[in-house]
Amino acid sequence: MRVSTKELYISRMVKVLNYIQANLDKDLTLSELAEQACFSTYHFHRIFSGMLGESVKELVRRLRLERAAIQLQTGALSILQIALQAGYESDMAFSRVFKARTGLLPSKFRKSTHTKYPCLAKASIRYVTNEYITSFEPFIDKELNMNVMIKQVDDIYVAFVSHTGPYQECGKAWDVLCSTLAPEGLLGGNAKMIGVSFDDPDVIAAEKLRYDACISVTRSFKPIEEVGTKTICAGKYAVITHIGPYGKLSQTYRQFFGQWLSQSDYEPANKPCFEIYLNDPESTDPEDLVTDIYIPLKG
């Protein structure tokens, strides 16, 4: 019997969840976890956070708190020892977070007779002692209604300017690119305005985010100073249209990877996504901006 894509994605995430729990005190890297899941590091975290309803950091922080709650009521460790094991620098910092999640200070929780542990995640994964997680019910947004098209895309030759830093500051790269191409008459006609985001802003520090501002050109165009050329590779892509501010693009990415993709018959390819901007942000209200997101697929 053929295993469904959903079951395959769940089994991969189960492996990651058990790996996290077995190594809860380690500083786990995304590449390490992506390898466990057999997913590309490009896309692993968006699949994870979409299916689990929380990021890797949020999950680890919560599981450590849940373990701490068990230790408070069943162990002999001091509150400071438990706080340090949970990743906090002091018992005061730990106590502040613990009370926010449980409603009680650790000292009062330790004396209580009930087992009011920190809140469950959306996918109902919680800390268990010496037990193996076998499955979970992925977080699904019941109001999610994604209209996804599968397209075969040809090579796109582009002029580009690279940007490193917060995505909201990539306008500097666009200014350089457009001011260089405008005198050449290359901004009109069928030219496509394309953005290639190499990193997930949910897990990479803002100052390290990498982005290429691109405009499609003919092969006759040659690099000029800061403006280089490259090819966005042909292949099969899932395309979804995002309507609204660019600042909410990451939400659409998470929904696509964690929910639509895990219910489909597709797997992401090991290369970056790209975006095609269909109207001008200088003359369009943020709520009316239209962006086509292209997600590379295997096969």
TrEMBL record:
<dbReference type="GO" id="GO:0043565">
    <property type="term" value="F:sequence-specific DNA binding"/>
</dbReference>
<dbReference type="InterPro" id="IPR009057">
    <property type="entry name" value="Homeodomain-like_sf"/>
</dbReference>
<dbReference type="GO" id="GO:0003700">
    <property type="term" value="F:DNA-binding transcription factor activity"/>
</dbReference>
<dbReference type="InterPro" id="IPR018062">
    <property type="entry name" value="HTH_AraC-typ_CS"/>
</dbReference>
<dbReference type="Pfam" id="PF12833">
    <property type="entry name" value="HTH_18"/>
</dbReference>
<protein>
    <submittedName>
        <fullName>AraC family transcriptional regulator</fullName>
    </submittedName>
</protein>
<keyword id="KW-0238">DNA-binding</keyword>
<dbReference type="Pfam" id="PF06445">
    <property type="entry name" value="GyrI-like"/>
</dbReference>
<dbReference type="InterPro" id="IPR018060">
    <property type="entry name" value="HTH_AraC"/>
</dbReference>
<dbReference type="InterPro" id="IPR011256">
    <property type="entry name" value="Reg_factor_effector_dom_sf"/>
</dbReference>
<keyword id="KW-0805">Transcription regulation</keyword>
<dbReference type="InterPro" id="IPR029442">
    <property type="entry name" value="GyrI-like"/>
</dbReference>
<feature type="domain" description="HTH araC/xylS-type">
    <location>
        <begin position="14"/>
        <end position="112"/>
    </location>
</feature>
<dbReference type="InterPro" id="IPR020449">
    <property type="entry name" value="Tscrpt_reg_AraC-type_HTH"/>
</dbReference>
<dbReference type="InterPro" id="IPR010499">
    <property type="entry name" value="AraC_E-bd"/>
</dbReference>
<keyword id="KW-0804">Transcription</keyword>
<dbReference type="InterPro" id="IPR050908">
    <property type="entry name" value="SmbC-like"/>
</dbReference>
